[in-house]
Design brief:
β1 (19-23) and β2 (32-35) form a beta hairpin. With 321 residues, the chain is mostly helical. It has helices at residues 2-14, 66-76, 83-87, 94-108, 113-136, 142-156, 158-161, 169-184, 202-215, 223-243, 246-266, 271-295, 305-320; strands at residues 19-23, 32-35, 50-52. α4 (94-108) packs antiparallel against α5 (113-136). The protein is extended, with a radius of gyration of 29 Å. It has 13 helices and three strands.
Length: 321
Amino acid sequence: MRASEAKLKLMEGYGAEHGVYLVDPLSEEDAAFMPLFELDRHSAFTPFTTLIVPGVSLCEKERFSVEDLIEVCRMLRSPDGCPWDREQTHESLRRNLLEEAYEVLGAMGEEDPMHMAEEFGDLLLQIALHSVIGEEFGEYDITDVATSICQKMIRRHPHVFGTVEVSSTGEVLDNWEEIKRQERGQKAKKSYLADVGKGLPPLKMAEELQKKAARWGFDWDDYLPAAEKVKEELCELLTAKESGTEEEALVEAGDLLFACVNTIRLMELDGDTGLYLTCEKFKQRFLAMEQMAEKQGRSLQEMTLDEMDALWERAKKVKNS
């Protein structure tokens, strides 16, 4: 049983074919060499049987751990590593981090688990790179990153790791916010929205602000008055565009988007997912338009807007059929 458990665990990192040795120091027989998958088939176990697992280089491994990923990043940023990776800083990697997060969201919509695993790996690489950069400057390392989030989760879930009792998700969220305020020394209610949305894309920031305000009662009862607000903001945007300054029009454009986010939120829909689906739909229809134009021996650049509109309508019908 112990051999079987050891085999399964070791195969996670070394692979089934990795050669290992079994030796009994009290026996006169030579060490038995075998592939790892045969380990529990050996029959001559004694209380002194010793398993010897030869080391393997990173390039020879079949499966890897987070520690391996950190080592890969260290090698990439070493003097003998990759010039591009050595040049990266926290600031230069900001965009990569955001893009990889959105790649993950895209994969989640495809219902392909292995593609999700790949994209989560790309996102994890960004965290590993930032951890190694922090390590190089003596700021923090991957253990500090893991320690920080584990401590936070334990503190903010006293109903799991402590003696606090809760009866609803609402109570969990209330406790979460109160613990956050205590951690930051923010006891005044005026600080409730102070840190909401830092680093988030604007549309997501708008949704989070609205959700926070709603929990304190600053919200409509349903989406209908919010939808009326969308109409109102659209009219104000058109007026500002026609007779106001560019700055006024920009402010009204923001108000319109904020109102749209509010309406979608009150409909209990996810705006980010909806916008993503629309973008994907647009890409597919535009691709179909290009293919239709190519069959006609033309390109979209050569067509008039009316001709492209006709192809767009055909693309819609093809997709819906």
